[in-house]
Amino acid sequence: MNKENLISISKNVRKNIIEMIYESKSGHPGGSLSCADIITYLYFEKMNVDEKNPKMEERDRFVLSKGHAAPALYSVLAEKGFFPREEMKSLRKIGALLQGHPDSKHIPGVDVSTGSLGQGISNAAGMALGLKHKGSKSKVYVLLGDGELQEGLVWEAAMAAAHYKLDNLVAIIDNNGLQIDGKNEEVMSIAPLDDKFKSFGFNVIKCNGNDFDEIDKAMTRADRVKGMPTVIIAKTIKGKGVSFMENIAGWHGQAPSLEQKEKAIIELEG
């Protein structure tokens, strides 16, 4: 793992997120910033993907179940070369390539259209099952928000994943502790996550989702698991990298002003 390179890329990813959401005057900066390191690691270190051949049959698949964090995914895809960086300037504009949520029909590198919370992991489990039937060695990685775990559909998918022994499925929880209405524990407690997933038949791994060393160790451990799906509970900071956005629920779905954008970029560059 080239940690310095990943850190450099993730800084660019975060700057892109801020710029994109400022230009569109709408979007979700908090949850996009919290998961930037995880998605950067997957595309630049872990997954078998080819930006020149996005539909390559033997590729690994990624599903952004928390589809509102699309700016993080788009930024990583642009940095990787799936589409020109210029496309990021038109986020959420009518007729633009990049919509407010991932669109698999039009955006290169997007495997599943997402946005309705809870459905992404269901898609991912189905994809993993299909790949197993084909005898494929490809893996499916799905990133969920922790507030998203309040959706019953998530647990139906979890039951199915364990029942079919989908060891080619790795779920990652962006565990930043906040959702649009405040703290998860106050809106609808999802604790204890580790015990819940263990009871559903998952191998459970915990890590710091904003630390590349810990992400790498967690993914390496997940590779060794046979006969059951894995969930990585990745503790993150909502708004990571921008001091006035960190751990503030209000930045879940709010675009920065020009002054705030400029301050954020200065912090991220520093």
Automatic annotation (TrEMBL):
Which EC class is this protein assigned?
transferase
Checking Pfam families in the record gives: Transketolase_N
Coiled-coil ranges per UniProt = none
Q: Where is the Transketolase N-terminal domain?
A: 11-255
Tell me which cofactor or cofactors this protein depends on.
thiamine diphosphate
Which keywords accompany this UniProt record?
Metal-binding, Thiamine pyrophosphate, Transferase
> What are the TM regions of this chain, as residue ranges?
none
One annotated GO molecular function is: metal ion binding
CDD domains given in the database record: TPP_TK (cd02012)
Enzyme Commission number(s): 2.2.1.1
The record's InterPro entries line, in alphabetical order, gives: THDP-binding, Transketolase_CS, Transketolase_N
Which Gene3D superfamilies does UniProt cross-reference here? 3.40.50.970
UniProt lists the family membership as follows: Belongs to the transketolase family.
**Protein name (database record):** Transketolase
Q: Which organism is it from?
A: Clostridium vincentii
Q: Which gene encodes it?
A: tkt_4
